[in-house]
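in:
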């Protein structure tokens, strides 16, 4: 029985917990920090007047910065080596520090049931909850982690009903093991959030692997169905009407909840533009769109969030959005708003 989580909480309470850099035995700067200028998003006049709130992990100002041509600073990509670690409930404890990789707080005490000599961990509290970040972020970090040690990810009960992870990892040539509570002699963890050129190279490598697979078409448009899926439902009430109208204009319709990863990649690969409600399903598109393709997000009025623009800027893609009308229970979007914004962004 280990009391490491309880001791760490006590250290935090009395401001004695060590941060990752101080707890690490070795630190490697994989990529230096970078600065630059964002591109301008495509959107129709009056769209921002419809915004009633933002996603809880962001702010109005951060979203305005994302969609306008403002300067950015992206953090360096770092690797940290920890020794004599305990992994409990998705948090890695070592040398008075704790590195959390799952959303939920670990138990105060736990039984350690096995030991691992070397491990390079992927996973964040964000990718634990949102499939899109699991697919994009963790896959990119895995390409980095493999150069340090065998790749592991903490076990998460949240992923039990996710249908596509294994198939995607097989298509992208990524192999990692999942582990529960363990003692680890030598562990690497990563800070891999900055949109550096090093990260772009890894995302480009993932895109090349998926785009090498057979595709149904090229240069086409795709509409992704969201329905009532996701950890935080975002109900586009007239989604079926929009899908039917876009299908009549030659768009491919993709429903990730009902299709295999292979079918999703085949339909999306080489598309010039992908449209869908803001959320994890757009991760499918980011990894499969044609080079210099476009992503058009349908934004719930009470959950404005343009996190995917960070990625389209990095990858040299175009980005646009439309803001729906409605409330927190559901919303609607006009087909004309979508088509006019398609003209702007594509």
């Amino acid at each position: 029985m280990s009391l490491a989580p309880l001791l760490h909480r006590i250290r935090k309470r009395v401001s004695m917990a060590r941060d990752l850099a101080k707890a690490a035995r070795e630190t490697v700067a994989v990529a230096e920090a970078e600065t630059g200028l964002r591109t301008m998003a495509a959107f129709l006049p009056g769209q921002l007047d419809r915004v009633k709130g933002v996603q809880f992990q962001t702010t109005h100002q951060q979203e305005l910065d994302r969609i306008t041509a403002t300067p950015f600073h992206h953090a360096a990509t770092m690797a940290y080596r920890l020794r004599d670690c305990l992994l409990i409930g998705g948090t890695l404890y070592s040398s008075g520090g704790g590195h959390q990789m799952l959303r939920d707080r670990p138990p105060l005490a736990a039984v350690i049931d096995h030991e691992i000599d070397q491990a390079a961990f992927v996973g964040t509290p964000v990718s634990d909850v949102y499939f899109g970040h699991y697919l994009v972020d963790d896959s990119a970090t895995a390409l980095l982690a493999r150069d340090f040690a065998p790749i592991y990810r903490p076990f998460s009960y949240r992923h039990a009903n996710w249908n596509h992870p294994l198939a995607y990892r097989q298509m992208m040539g990524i192999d990692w093991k999942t582990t529960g509570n363990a003692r680890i002699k030598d562990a690497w963890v990563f800070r891999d959030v900055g949109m550096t050129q090093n990260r772009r190279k890894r995302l480009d490598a993932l895109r090349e692997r998926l785009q090498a697979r057979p595709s149904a078409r090229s240069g086409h448009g795709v509409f992704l169905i969201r329905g009532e899926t996701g950890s935080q439902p975002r109900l586009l009430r007239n989604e079926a009407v929009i899908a039917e109208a876009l299908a009549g204009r030659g768009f491919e319709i993709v429903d990730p909840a009902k299709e295999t990863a292979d079918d999703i990649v085949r339909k999306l690969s080489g598309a010039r533009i992908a449209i869908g409600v803001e959320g994890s399903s757009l991760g499918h598109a980011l990894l499969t769109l044609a080079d210099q393709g476009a992503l058009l997000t349908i934004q719930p009025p009470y959950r404005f969030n343009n996190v995917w623009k960070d990625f389209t800027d990095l990858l040299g893609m175009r980005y646009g959005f439309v803001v729906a009308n409605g409330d927190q229970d559901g919303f609607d979007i006009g087909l004309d708003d979508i088509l006019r914004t398609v003209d702007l962004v594509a």
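note: The first helix runs from residue 4 to 13.
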